[in-house]
């Protein structure tokens, strides 16, 4: 079964420190895409970063980087230099090649950034 | 602002009623996706349309239907509403029909409350 697991329901981080949000996935596909989205309290879903299963380099987008370990089937999001505005829900998502490209989302991790 | 618009922002209705949620994709995007986000089910993929045609189907109930019009806007129709249909409904759009790397950009959502 295709599945995304985010084991941390909530996390705290001190402002200006780095934080890692965990994501593991389960798929038998060799080809898939991995995404992270941020959902602030206002409710909108904001795309953060993408990693393809065949990408050799870890994706980076500004303060966001994706620690992709294919053999472990993990795609952890690293946020460097946390800011108060980073407080939000973070969702990991996977789009496998088979199954009609349906995107599967994890349950999310709520991040609290402390001043 | 993702460029995806959804109306209305909030909708309150009674059980048994029917409602229509509307979505306009980003300029140039041909695919529209509908998602339901509830506290107990998380973010669930409902259906995808590409250039007017149904492309992929997820956990969409038979009481729900959707369509994409020639101008590419989409509507999600929910009928015989039940209390459990109360949720945040997102529309997302992307450029292509669903490549692995196709990033979906989400609208602000429609919060449906069924009383």
Protein described:
Chain A has 115 residues and is mainly beta. Chain A has no helices and 12 strands. In chain A, strands 2, 5, 6, 10, 11 and 12 form a 6-stranded mixed β-sheet that branches. In chain A, strands 3-9-8-7 form a 4-stranded antiparallel β-sheet, with no helix packed on it. Chain A has a two-stranded antiparallel ribbon with strand order 1-4. In chain A, strand 8 (64-69) and strand 9 form a beta hairpin. The mean pLDDT of chain A is 94. Chain B has 115 residues and is mostly beta strands. Chain B has no helices and 11 strands. Chain B has strands spanning 5-7, 10-13, 19-24, 31-38, 42-50, 53-57, 64-68, 74-78, 87-94, 105-106, 110-114. In chain B, a hairpin with a 2-residue loop joins strand 5 (42-50) and strand 6 (53-57). Chain B starts with a strand and ends with a strand. The mean pLDDT of chain B is 93. At the A-B interface, strand 5, strand 6 and strand 11 of A face strand 5, strand 6, strand 9 and strand 10 of B.
Give the helices and strands, then pairings.
The complex is a heterodimer of chains A (115) and B (115).
Chain A lengths: L2 E3 L4 E5 L4 E3 L2 E3 L5 E8 L6 E7 L7 E2 L2 E6 L4 E6 L8 E9 L7 E2 L3 E6 L1
Parallel strand pairs in A: 2-12
Antiparallel strand pairs in A: 1-4, 3-9, 5-6, 5-10, 7-8, 8-9, 10-11, 10-12
Chain B lengths: L4 E3 L2 E4 L5 E6 L6 E8 L3 E9 L2 E5 L6 E5 L5 E5 L8 E8 L10 E2 L3 E5 L1
Low-confidence regions of chain B: none
Helix content of chain A: under 10%
Give the radius of gyration of chain A.
14 Å
Instruction: Kindly report the average pLDDT value of chain A.
Output: 94
Content-based structural category of chain A:
mainly beta
Work out the oligomeric state of the chains in this entry.
heterodimer
Question: Strand portion of chain A, in percent?
Answer: over 45%
Strand content of chain B: over 45%
How would a crystallographer describe the biggest sheet of chain A? Answer: 6 strands, mixed
Task: Give the SSE order of chain B as H and E letters.
Answer: EEEEEEEEEEE
Distance from N terminus to C terminus of chain B (CA atoms, Å) equals: 31 Å
């Amino acid at each position: 079964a295709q599945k995304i697991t985010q084991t941390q329901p909530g996390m705290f981080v001190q402002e200006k420190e780095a934080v890692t949000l965990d994501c593991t996935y389960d798929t038998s596909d060799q080809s898939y895409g991995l995404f992270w989205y941020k959902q602030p309290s206002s409710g909108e879903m904001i795309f953060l970063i993408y990693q393809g299963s065949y990408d050799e380099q870890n994706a980076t987008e500004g303060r966001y980087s994706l620690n992709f370990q294919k053999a472990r089937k993990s795609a952890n999001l690293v946020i460097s230099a946390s800011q108060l505005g980073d407080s939000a829900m973070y969702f990991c998502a996977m789009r496998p090649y088979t199954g009609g490209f349906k995107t599967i989302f994890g349950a999310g991790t709520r991040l609290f950034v402390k001043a | 602002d993702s460029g995806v618009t959804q109306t209305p922002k909030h909708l309150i209705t009674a059980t048994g009623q029917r409602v229509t949620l509307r979505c306009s994709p980003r300029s140039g995007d041909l695919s529209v996706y509908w998602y339901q986000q509830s506290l107990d089910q998380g973010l669930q993929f409902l259906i995808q349309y590409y250039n007017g045609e149904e492309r992929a189907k997820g956990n969409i109930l038979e009481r729900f239907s959707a369509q994409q019009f020639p101008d590419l806007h989409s509507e999600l129709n929910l009928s015989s509403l039940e209390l459990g249909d109360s949720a945040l409904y997102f529309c997302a759009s992307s450029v292509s029909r669903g490549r692995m790397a196709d990033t979906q950009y989400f609208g602000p959502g429609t919060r449906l409350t069924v009383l």
